[in-house]
Structure formats: structure tokens, C-alpha cells
């Protein structure tokens, strides 16, 4: 039985005898044999080489990396090395074995000498447990077997699933709070004074939305939108935004505790990545000299400049989307099709959001290559250092790809487009689009909803379908069996390894970034869930539904559709933690800005306490926001329209002298009124107050919840004490 345990399989095409590739392959396999590896060759349509490492390599590994105090006791009896460690050590040696031509496996794979190298999914008890308890749809709401995942895929993958499970569990509370906010908006605020006034405004005539062929319109047409807007834009949203800021902090603090518990139970507390790497290098080659740390300011400057250029390109793409929407709006309003011209604004926003989604997909691929290129410029020392550098770059690029257009909609849309008679125009021709008549937060809500729904449905389907289809295709490619009888030999019994190796070869290949992709996807989703959540309180609910499916989809992909990942050790989720903390801070700023700038919360409050009927006389039974709508619209005289604006001065058979538009400007010279500056000051004051309160609460929460549980601290303390006493 022991004879048939193979650590790794190398696959190569059948090359002609004496060809360059065949010679290179032989040289590499000879190097492995010199190191004491056992190699078994099986020929099918490809050549398969099973590789098994000699036992002394693992003894050396245990010797170098066990704690010095435990060395005396168990060095007499070598315990078995766990499978994950075996695979990791063998993988390292394979990757770092150098042939006489100074080529490593990586170079040989580029030159097509070898096609693939992978560890095997074997029929083990643990694999059956994982398939039954984890990698199937039936166990959607059961707890994940983290311990088993660790024993099969290594610590790094297990930590990813532990983190994802923890995040999903805490999303339940955020989703409930978001749902409660929307519900409160629907029940309490449908009868709100502001939306009632909009629905009753049958004779408030609004200025046209475009230059040609657009007629005037009546404010009460936007009645339904006003009600919907009020569901998201009310007093409850402010509380919800602060709740989400606290939630983000508590989530990370509790995760740190969870991680500390897990790391101690896996005996990883004192584990050091650098030491592990040096030990493996020395086992592979006792003459190895370590590669030293380097840092060059020149390189860093080049990388910084190139990264900034890339960010400018991404912001440029956001501008292109803005221009698209302005032009689309103009073309749709003039279109002959009634449906298009009637709902021009909504259609422009919808198609804009779909287009944004398409640019996200395309730019993701581009960002990937740029980030890799910048990483190579930096020449990081170790794999994990390279991974950290890459993570930060790709996250920043992805953040701008996903959010630049949202930032524009939230903070610039409708603030920079001028006023009737003096619009800001693109190329002197197209008017910049305005906010939706019922408030700017509606646009943000639509954009967020479209992107989150598309991202989660389409991306998830593709993520599962592509590996599944390619696996099915690889299965189909099997050519008919060659009968050895044709060569005049006796039919030999088929090797039991052959089927297993072929089956593993048919699975999709994995690379260093397989796990990275999963992290990136969830972290971008986390940004959507926290940063603009004030405009889209349903985001946590969507994220929750997505994650429950995501966990099991990833599990099925890893167990059934992909070759086995090379297990890697890790004691935390690495640099992702800092990324998540940065998002937490951005979320406070983002939500503060959304409430202060995008929503109508501040103008309504300023009106209530400074301009409403309540301030002038004592109306006890009156709603203080009465008259707000009329107060928030400015008057425009028709004779001041720009010369090329073609507007019919008649509306419903009445000659019109003036129309209204959303802004605080004087009727005679169109300068800002004093109320505009009052509101501006109130917005700034609210923003400063909100951010400081939320950040203080974050800091208090971070202090209040210790990073490492007492139990873990005490366990480490006792161990140190025991070891020192034993030494004494």
C-alpha cells in the first residue's frame, strides 16, 4: 500500500527521442533522482511521472522546525508528517530544483517541456467527509468543517473559509438593520409631508429637462419616485449609517479574536514564514545563500508614478461614462419612440449602469496585468511579500474601477450643471445631466442596485459555469485506448495509479491566484456593503444571500472541479486585514458625505428649524416641514432661456411666463440666496460632526473588544512557563 503514495504528478507531452525537450526533461528528472526521489512513469496520450520524496527530507524538515524543547522526546520516533506538509515541501523542492542548464521547473513549463505539475486528490477519509459535509448544496446553512478543510487544503485556505463564514454570520445583523430601515421608511414615511406636497403639486410647472422639443412638466408627475426616495432618504438612514460604521469595526475586532483562537489551536502562534522559507531552501540545497532585503527609492517612485497614471485612466473612464449619460439623455429625449422619450432619464441611468458593469469586467483584466507588471518592477523578496504588494495595487485599481462612477453620482451629479439660461455643456453642445427630479439619492440607489445585482448574479454564474464546462470538455477529450496488442505485446493489467492520475489531470488547473481571486471578490463586495450603504440599505442583505451561495460554490469548485491546491501555511489573512480596516474608515467618510451632500436630510432640517412656519408662530398641530417643496424650488423667467433652446411657451393651453427648478437662487439675477449658504454651512457642520462621532465610536469599539481572548493569552502564558520550568 505504501508503495503507491505519490506526492506529486508531472505531466508532459510525448517528445521524440533526442529532441531538445526530451533531453531537458531527462536532465530535470535526473536531478530529482539525485536527491533521492522515486519516480514512476506511466504512458498514456501524455507521459505521467509520479514523484515521491525520500523520508529523510521530512525528517530534516521536522528537525529544523520543531520547537527545541520537544526535540529530545520525539526524535527517537519520527511521527508521520501530515499530508499537507508533505505536499508543501515537495512542491517547494520541485519548484527550486535547478538543472545543469540553470533552468527551474517554472522555465521548463514555459518552454512546454512539462505541461502540468500538481498534487493529487486521493481517496482519503477526510476527502469523503468534506464532500459530504461541505462541498454540496444540501448543507447550505450548516457550520463549515474548518478543521477538516485545514487538514486537506492547508491553513491558508481554511483561514479564508473561516473568515468568509464569520463575515457572512455577522452580515445577518447588518441585513436585518438595513431591512428595518427600509421597512421603517415604507411604513412611517409614506405619509411624509414632503412626498405629500410633491404629489399634490399639480400647478407647480417645472423647467424642461432638455433643450429641444422638451415641454414643461408638472412636479406631481414624480409622485411615485418621491415616495420611493423617502423610503431610503429619511431620519432612520442616519442611524443606520452610524450603525454600519460601528458594525464594520466590531466585525474586524471580533474576527481578530476568532483568528487568535484558531491560530493557537493550530499551533501557529510562534510560526514564522521567513524561518520556514529558509529551512526549505536549506533542505533543498545545503549551500544556499539567503536573498537579502533590498529597497530602492527610485523603483518606488517609478511604481508610484505609474500607479497614479493608471488611477487617472480609471477616473477618465468614469468621465467617459458621465459624457455617455449626458449624450444618451439628449438623444433619448428627442427620440421618436414614445417609451424612450418619456422615461429618458431612467433609461439613461440604467444603460449607464450596465455600461459601467461592462467596463468593470474589462478593466479588471487590464488592472490585473498592470498590477503584476508593477509588482515585477519592485522585485519583492518572498512570495508572500509579492502577494502583499500585488494585493494593495490591485485593490486600489479595482476600487477606482468600481467606485469612480458612483462617487461622481453621489457627490458631483447635479451640483456642477449650472442653472436654466446658463447650463454647463459638454463641448458647448450637450447639457450635463441633472439629478433625478425626486432627489440625487435616487440615481445612486439605482446605480448601486444594478451593479450589485449584475455583479452577484452574472459573475457568480460565470464563476461556476466556466470551470464546470471546461472540466466537462477535458473529460470528453479522451482518445480511444491504444491496445498494446498492436505492438505485439501481451495486454498488461492497467496500473491502478493511471486512472487516478488521469482523473486529476482532467480537472481545471489551479494557480497562485486562485484563492486571491476569491478574496478580492469578497473584499470589493464588502466595500459595496459598507461605503455607500446609506444610499442602498439593502446592500448587506444582497451580500448575505450571495455569500451563503459563494461559500458552497467555492467548496464545490475546490473539491470537484479543480486540481488540489498546494497547501500553504498562514497564521492570518495577511494584508487583507489592513485593506478591510481602510474600507472601514472610508465607509465612515462615504456615508457621512452621502447623508450630508447627496440626501435631502440637511436641507429639510435647515428648513424646519430656520424657515418653516413653525419658527414664525407657535403651530402645535402642524408638521414643521410644510412648505418645504415650494421653498426648495427657484423661479426662472422664460425670456432668459438661451437663444438655441426651443421650448413651446404654451403648456396645457396656458401661456407660461416662469418655471421652477431645484436650487436656491434669486429670481432676478440667479445668484445664490442666503438660504443656500445656510444649508452649505449646515452640511459641513453635519459632516464634521458625523465623522468625528463615528470615528470615536469606532475607536472605542476597537479598544473595548480585546484582539486576543484571555483564554488564548493564558494558554500561551502557561506554555511558556511550563517550558522554562522544564528547562530549569
TrEMBL record:
GO terms for cellular component: plasma membrane. It is a multi-pass membrane protein. The keyword Phosphoprotein does not apply. It comes from Hylia prasina. Residues 82-146 form the Anoctamin dimerisation domain. One of its GO terms (molecular function) is chloride channel activity. It is found in: Cell membrane; Membrane. The gene is Ano9. Keywords: Cell membrane, Glycoprotein, Membrane, Transmembrane, Transmembrane helix. This is Anoctamin.
